[in-house]
What does this fold into?
Amino acid sequence: MQPPGRRLATARRQGEYFMSSPAQSIQTNPQFSAEERAAVYRAIHTRRDVRGQFLPDPVPDEVLARVLTAAHHAPSVGFMQPWDFIVVRAPEVKQKVNQAFRLAHAEAELMFEEGKRATYRKLKLEGILEAPINLCVTCDRRRNGPVVVGRTHIAAMDLYSSVCAVQNLWLAARAEGLGVGWVSIFHQQALRDALGIPREIIPVAYLCIGYVSHFYDRPELEAAGWLPRLALGELLHFDRWQGEADAAGTALLARLDDADPARG
Ligand SMILES: Cc1cc2c(cc1C)N(C[C@H](O)[C@H](O)[C@H](O)COP(=O)(O)O)c1[nH]c(=O)[nH]c(=O)c1N2
It folds into this structure.
């Protein structure tokens, strides 16, 4: 609890802030048309993790600016905006990142049980050198000081916020016809070293970005028989973890297949 004098000063400062900030206005066109709604769902359902279909075609700056801006408009805990974006085009930097991937990839293979190693070896899991643009999305956990609205009790919220930026970018990129592939098979420090990232900054995502020859209609890991898509109905819980579906739950479950373009 602050002493009364300090409390008053803080309240006055906050009052000044709220009084001096422009009045909040409301969105004038809040509804999406049916076509706009369909376009959003199309981006969601046709987004893919792209590893091997990159074309060398350059990505125009105005397109890259749009997808970066989409990332920057992601939600973030306490409006912390903990992200930075490292745009990587230099071949020598990509080479260093690629070496870091190769090392971790060789280690990763040995972590799977023997029966799966041959399949793992065949998977293409990055497009670092082929993609014209690589992008590292980071998280600065110290941004705006130690106490952040919404992160007071669960520290990882800042990391989740940077992931929200990644997802915004991924969907915007799909709408632009750009493929994005997330590569996470690295020692974190090796990625920091390759990109000159300071110790206190967390590299959250390393993304390969570029135009593509085609998008697959299903996740590559699903098509390769690595894992199937789980049934959403088996992942829904009602009121509590062990909760069974009541009438309302059953009605919702009956609607799920129609909502999924791959099943409906
Ligand atoms: C946090 C995280 C990390 C990774 C991935 C994703 C996410 C969310 N994915 C992509 C992942 O394999 C892919 O999203 C799923 O297989 C589903 O496929 P679609 O994204 O729907 O095409 C991924 N893919 C890959 O080839 N190499 C990788 O290192 C990673 N790492």
Summary: The chain is about 45% helix and 10% strand. Confidence is low (pLDDT under 50) at residues 1-19. The pocket of FNR is lined by residues 48-49, 51, 125-126, 181-185, 219, 221 (CB under 6 Å). The chain has two domains: 45-229, 230-264.
